[in-house]
């Protein structure tokens, strides 16, 4: 009889514990926000230029520009295809260099993507294993970062494809 009471108590206690754990997890805010990445300094990294395969040091990119816009993209990414026309528009209307970071892509696929849709980038860097993107703070593609080129700090991060509203915001930040 005592043994049954102990088993019942353990089952009931375990059930209550699991219920409350799940309940608390459901009430937790699981939304990813970009506040934790803004004003983070991008650590220097080396990568290879997409077409020439020449090694490039990030700290030496666009030394004459106050801002850099870093766009992480892939040919296999459908939202990247959607945002491409917006990147082209952005490139034509800002005083900053647009740097592409090609994420975990096959060279021929990425080259075909650019041939089909055009190349809005001033420089394209390779991120073949995805480690550069992870180090920067990316969670997926596409992601776009407005970076102060003087101190290499992130001013703004855009999750997903950039849109017309994002373009206006970037233009106003860059043209201050």
What fraction strand? Answer: 15-25%
Strand pairing plus helix content: what structural class? Answer: alpha/beta
Average pLDDT figure: 89
> Could you give a short account of the major beta sheet?
5 strands, mixed
| Overall domain count | 2
CATH 4th-level superfamily of the largest domain: Glutaredoxin
CATH topology of the largest domain: Glutaredoxin
According to CATH, what is the class of the largest domain? Alpha Beta
Task: State the shape.
Answer: elongated
How many DSSP H or I helices?
5
User: In order across it, which strands form the biggest sheet?
Assistant: 5-4-3-6-7
Approximately how much helix is present in the residues? 25-40%
In short:
The chain is an alpha/beta fold. The protein is built from five helices and seven strands, in the order αβββαβαβαββα. The protein folds into two domains: 1-30; 46-174, Glutaredoxin, CATH 3.40.30.10.
Question: Explain this structure to me?
Answer:
There is one protein chain. The protein is of the alpha/beta class. The chain has 2 domains: 1-30; 46-174, 3-Layer(aba) Sandwich (Glutaredoxin), CATH 3.40.30. The protein has 5 helices and 7 strands, in the order αβββαβαβαββα. Strands 5-4-3-6-7 form a 5-stranded mixed β-sheet. Strands 1-2 form a two-stranded antiparallel ribbon. A hairpin with a 6-residue loop joins strand 1 (46-48) and strand 2 (55-57). The protein is elongated, with a radius of gyration of 22 Å. The mean pLDDT is 89.
Quick tags:
two-stranded antiparallel ribbon; Glutaredoxin; 5-stranded mixed β-sheet; 176 residues; 22% strand; 39% helix; 2 domains; 7 strands; alpha/beta
């Amino acid at each position: 009889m005592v043994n049954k009471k102990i088993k019942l108590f353990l089952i009931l206690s375990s059930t209550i514990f699991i219920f409350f754990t799940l309940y608390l997890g459901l009430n937790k805010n699981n939304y990813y926000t970009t506040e934790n990445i803004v004003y983070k300094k991008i650590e220097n990294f080396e990568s290879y230029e997409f077409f020439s395969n020449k090694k490039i040091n990030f700290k030496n990119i666009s030394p004459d520009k106050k801002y850099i816009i870093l766009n992480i993209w892939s040919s296999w990414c459908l939202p990247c295809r959607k945002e491409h026309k917006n990147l082209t528009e952005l490139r034509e209307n800002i005083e900053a260099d647009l740097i592409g970071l090609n994420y975990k892509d096959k060279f021929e696929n990425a080259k075909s993507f650019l041939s089909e849709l055009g190349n809005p980038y001033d420089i394209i860097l390779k991120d073949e294993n995805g480690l550069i993107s992870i180090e920067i703070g990316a969670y997926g593609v596409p992601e776009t970062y407005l970076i102060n080129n003087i101190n290499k700090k992130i001013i703004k991060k855009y999750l997903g494809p950039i849109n017309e509203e994002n373009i206006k915001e970037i233009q106003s930040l860059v043209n201050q």
